[in-house]
Amino acid sequence: MQLAVVPSFVHLTLHFSAVIAGLAVSVQYVATLASRPFAGHTSDTRGAKRATASGLCSIIASGALFTIAAFLRHDALASLLALCLSRLVLGFGESWVATGGALWGIARMGESQQAKVISWNGVGSYGGMAVGAPVGVLLENHYGLGAVGMVSIVISAAAAVWAATIPRVATYRKPPLAFAKVLKKVTGEGIGLGLGGIGFGTIAAFITLFYASRNWPDASLSLTLFGAAFVVARLGFAWTVTKWGGYPVAMVSLAVECAGLLVLWLAPAPLAARIGATIAGFGFSLVFPALGVEAVRKVPVESRGSALAIYTAFIDLSMGVAGPLAGAIVSAAGYPPIFLFAAAAAVLGIALLLKIRQPSATLHTTA
């Protein structure tokens, strides 16, 4: 819900620059990046359910701060500070929910199902984005920005109640690997993920302002189509990771994402932009589970949470970098070049994976 309304609120209502609007989106990922390793370690040592519950409580607090930011809109600086604090708390919560939830599912289903679990985890996240974008715009248009914060409190509280009904899983007595060792093992896959994530970060932070700059309607529809295509790809093609291995699937996915970003770069009309966003979402969808399976495979079972958290931190880093970098490009050259920049990052990701990939044993599971 927030992704669809934060950039326009900061830029058009509070009258800050496009760079500040990008930072307002990206600041969430600074907190997510900083808290990922702690979330992974807590999931490994204290339990995935505990980590998930802690994250949901943080997201509830973020909703309260977001509501306060809306009520302070007549004091631009105070509103921006409250909004950024809300985004920081949201980033912390998202980190713990995503890491704890994925590890929780893997522990319940078994290692042979980890590609499916990671895929379904993304279906939940990006399905929420697909639904949340138009809902956020609808709430803001009819009830004001504060309604977005209040509804997020209710939804997060409902999620916490739901999570409380799911059985916890046992933790491992053997201590996990040290942070530096896990980081070294998953860095290649993490950078590949991060380069693919720049496209998502750019679309998330600037698609609404890109539409506004051209007086095009229904910008939130592009976020919805991105998220819907993401979910369709996860549901329909997650089995390809099991059959063909993570690296080949990730490279094809990055190529598809690049094609969508190029369509956005050249889009002459809203329909073309929506097509580009849809293709980009479809392509980006399988990058995370494909490389995630390869990353988790490199560490012992007692370090899966740390590996998944550190690996995921690379997309937080790319999302945090994408906002201000794209904002700087907008200030210098306008909106279309930011999509060319993101497409170039996807191409660089393919080149990296060609260099680091290793023959992967096919996972013999039922897709």
Written description of the protein model:
This protein has helices at 2-13, 18-45, 48-71, 76-109, 114-143, 145-164, 179-213, 219-237, 239-244, 246-266, 270-285, 287-297, 304-333, 336-356. It has a single domain (2-356), classed as MFS general substrate transporter like domains (Growth Hormone, Chain: A, Up-down Bundle), CATH 1.20.1250. With 367 residues, it is mostly helical.
Q: In CATH, what is the homologous superfamily?
A: MFS general substrate transporter like domains
Order of helices and strands: HHHHHHHHHHHHHH
Structural class given helices, strands, pairing?
mainly alpha
Beta-strand fraction estimate: under 5%
Using the CA coordinates, give the radius of gyration: 19 Å
Can you tell me the CATH topology? Growth Hormone, Chain: A
Mean pLDDT: 83
The low-confidence parts are 360-367
CATH architecture: Up-down Bundle
Question: How many extended strands?
Answer: 0
The total of helices stands at 14
Number of domains: 1
- State the major sheet: none
- Span between N and C termini? 32 Å
Shape: globular
Task: Kindly summarize this structure in a few lines.
This protein has about 375 residues and is mostly helical. The protein has helices at about 1-15, 20-45, 50-70, 75-110, 115-145, 145-165, 180-215, 220-235, 240-245, 245-265, 270-285, 285-295, 305-335, 335-355. Residues about 360-365 have low confidence and may be disordered.
